[in-house]
Design a protein that fits this description.
2 strands; single chain; Olfact_rcpt; 12 helices; Rhopdopsin 7-helix transmembrane proteins; receptor; transmembrane; globular
């Protein structure tokens, strides 16, 4: 490496360490941010406590040590992590006007934020596989979804895949020079949000971001659709109406979780792509709905719709006072 290249590298690293971004709360409501923070704080408390409760119940109750509940505990752990990822900066902006964030801290947050999003998509796909095997091949369910295979799915198909997909993002952002406005659109860092502030060609970032979404979230969505098409075919072949409804009922909670994840994601993508003329408040609200809705409502759906989870939660808080 030449001395000039070395000097440029040192200067770029120094600029990266000194560069500061400014986070944004709700546009136009800065004077009322303390009041706006109250519902946000409440939503975070519900999301954190709900997912912690699901994790506690599944780990504590031996009767719930089954594939379906293992995958549910993975989903809750990811939702919990996703909420904790945005909580410090969001409440910091609303409560303390702590709007400054360094480039390195911003990159770390976007790495975990996008990583947990891809993990959630992977877990939802694994849960669809669980329902597919349970309905289409019930006699081999216990032999196919062993503890070792569940661990393999969690580590390889969910964790390692997500980390490997997101790993290039910090390097792609770090190489960009930032000389325009350094005000971000949200109270947390997103790759596409930071990328638009760069004063250099960002085509590589855009192409990689698109490919990452296609080969994770879009591909997962297609496989999910195929899985439920096959499940529906199998269910419609069941002669008894009661058995058909019972089989579909076991999929209802998972279908809700899939909709809670993909509908806000699709809505945010469409608004980001076609709604540039819309008010910044709409963009901010959609981004917050996309990040907060799944962690908030997934525990509610599974607690209400899954009898075993509901009974264990009641028993955990009421002890033996409540009967089975």
């Amino acid at each position: 490496m030449s001395s000039q290249s070395l000097i440029m590298l040192v200067l770029n690293n120094t600029n990266a360490q000194l560069l500061t971004f400014f986070l944004t709360g709700i546009p136009g409501l800065r004077a009322a941010q303390v009041w706006v923070s109250i519902p946000f704080c409440l939503l975070y408390v519900i999301a954190l406590s709900g997912n912690s409760m699901i994790l506690f119940v599944v780990l504590r109750e031996q009767n719930l040590h089954e594939p379906m509940y293992y995958f549910l505990s993975m989903l809750s752990a990811i939702d919990l992590s996703l909420s904790l990822c945005t909580l410090p900066t969001t409440l910091g902006v609303f409560w303390f006007e702590a709007r400054e964030i360094t480039l390195n801290a911003c990159i770390a947050q976007m790495f975990f934020l996008h990583g947990f999003t891809f993990m959630e998509s992977g877990v939802l796909l694994a849960m669809a596989f669980d329902r597919f095997v349970a309905i289409c091949d019930p006699l081999r369910y216990a032999t196919i979804l062993t503890n070792a295979r569940i661990a393999q799915i969690g580590i390889t198909a969910v964790l390692l895949r997500s980390v490997s997909v997101v790993l290039p993002v910090p390097f792609l952002i770090k190489r960009l020079p930032f000389c325009r406005s350094n005000v971000l659109s949200h109270a947390y860092c997103l790759h596409q949000d930071a990328m638009r502030l760069a004063c250099a060609d960002t085509r590589v970032n855009s192409i990689y971001g698109l490919l990452a979404v296609i080969f994770t979230i879009v591909l997962d969505a297609l496989i999910l659709l195929i899985s439920y098409f096959l499940i529906l075919q199998e269910v419609l072949g069941i002669a008894s109406r009661e058995e058909r409804l019972k089989a579909l009922n076991t999929c209802f909670s998972h279908i809700c979780a899939v909709l809670l994840f993909y509908v806000p994601l699709i809505g945010m993508t469409l608004i980001h792509r076609f709604g540039k003329h819309l008010s910044p408040i709409i963009h901010t609200l959609m981004a917050n709905i996309y990040l907060l809705l799944p962690p908030l409502l997934n525990p509610v759906v599974y607690s209400v719709r899954t009898k075993q989870i509901r009974q264990r939660i009641v028993r955990a808080f009421c002890g033996n006072k409540i009967g089975h």
